[in-house]
Design goal:
Length: 257
Amino acid sequence: MSSFEVRNPFDKGFAALTIDIGTFVVASLFLDEIRRRIKHFVSHTLYINAVLACGNGVSMALLLLLSVAQFASCMILVLPSLYRHMGTAIPSLALGSTALVELMLYHGFRDWEIFFKVCVLEVCLFMVALLRRDAKARSEAIGVPVTGMALGIEAYIRKQCTLVHTALVCPPLAIVVLIWALVFYRFWKDSGTTFEMQRTSFTLCMAECGLLAFLAGQDRSQNYDVRGRAYQVLRNSYRALHQCVHGKPPRGFKKSI
């Protein structure tokens, strides 16, 4: 009997691949915020001190704690060796809580794009905590069937996504949103206030792409093969690109007897 070794992202399957993409997008947005916070650390410290009147030392400690918590949570969610042992609920909760803290500290409620981006990220983090490891994996981990509210919510999400056929609808929408962001919100070409406004719009589009990826992976339709064909096209494209660059097929595409 032949089987494929799971050594490349396209051997995981459509659902796992889209969840990985969504998680990567969410983690990238948080990591970029950490990078900018560290780059302008003094300015952020002065701002926090002005808002909270807690002194420069406490302000620096709060910013460092915020950054470390977000960085550690992102690493746990992205690396399989970590989230399989530590779970996804706590890091997702940590990222969601810190995002709300930042929203309040920086008065993000006044800007609808910032507020909406945080709302989208909160939904994404909820889905990361719920869907990063599926019910079968959780059941096998503890040796008994897993039931409860979490599985009920998970089943409801998948039912609604299947009814809407999100595997067909969401990927094209995500591509349109991505192209829109790259064409109209090229913040890297601007500076000052325009840079911040364009960057906010761009990151909002990226958050929406992440959410669409999560939704696409929850479609469990069995009456069409469009998703399978699209997945196969992506897989074959990956193989062709890898063979063109390295002169041989990627590991995991070779059949083992």
